[in-house]
Amino acid sequence: MGLQSNQGSGVFLSISNGKLVRQFKSPTDHSVSRVNKAGKEVHEEFYDSLIGQIKDLKTKETEYGKFWVITVTDGSINYMLEMKYSSGYSVSFLKALPNVDLKKPVTLSPKLYIDGDKKSSVLFINQNGAAIKHHFTKDTPNGMPPLEKIKVKGVETWDDTKRMEFLEDYVKTHILSKISVLPEVSEEEAPF
């Protein structure tokens, strides 16, 4: 289970361009180095999926915005997967989450689809060899509010504020009571 090549009690992951990403302070045998937006050199390893049991789900606020953090364990290692609060990755995950058996392992696989200049991102959940379907859909919203068309500085755009508030509330009232929360791993334990 898990990413198979990590050691320690907590591994911090993010998602970029349809891949799971783990950053390191120094280059590794499998890392790719690049300069990030802040001008700092980072060393990253990329993975296609993460296998384990969901043990916690929470939001956190940072100087870069609000994020979801999913804690997944493979029994010996806790993986903290961080994704932007209202990204395609988080929304697809949250829409399917009510259909997951939280007592069993899942496989989380991010994907990025590009069609011309349009990008769409998805975090697929598989369990027992089958894809988990969305509980909240356009045809069967199950209480989830639709996107709202609003004007921002004279330009029409889609607003997902009510939808994200609904999904966050749903997690707090229906999901968290079903998973066992692990002790938190501090940010200081992160390798970057």
What would you note in describing this structure?
The protein is mainly β and 192 residues long. 12% of the residues lie in helices and 44% in strands. It is built from two helices and twelve strands. It has helices at 88-96, 161-175; strands spanning 10-16, 19-24, 32-35, 41-47, 50-62, 65-73, 78-84, 106-115, 118-127, 130-131, 148-152, 155-159. A hairpin with a 2-residue loop joins strand 1 and strand 2. The two termini are 24 Å apart. The model is unreliable at 4-8 (pLDDT under 50).
What strand order characterises the main sheet? 3-4-2-1-7-6-5-8-9-10
Number of strands: 12
Tell me, briefly, the overall form: globular
* Series of secondary-structure elements, N-terminal to C-terminal: EEEEEEEHEEEEEH
Structural class: mainly beta
How much β-strand is present in the residues?
35-45%
Distance between the termini: 24 Å
Give Rg in angstroms.
Answer: 17 Å
User: How many helices?
Assistant: 2
Give the rounded overall mean pLDDT. Answer: 90
Low-confidence sequence ranges? 4-8
Quick one: biggest sheet? Answer: 10 strands, mixed
Give a quick rundown of the structure:
This protein is mainly β. The chain has helices at 88-96, 161-175; strands spanning 10-16, 19-24, 32-35, 41-47, 50-62, 65-73, 78-84, 106-115, 118-127, 130-131, 148-152, 155-159.
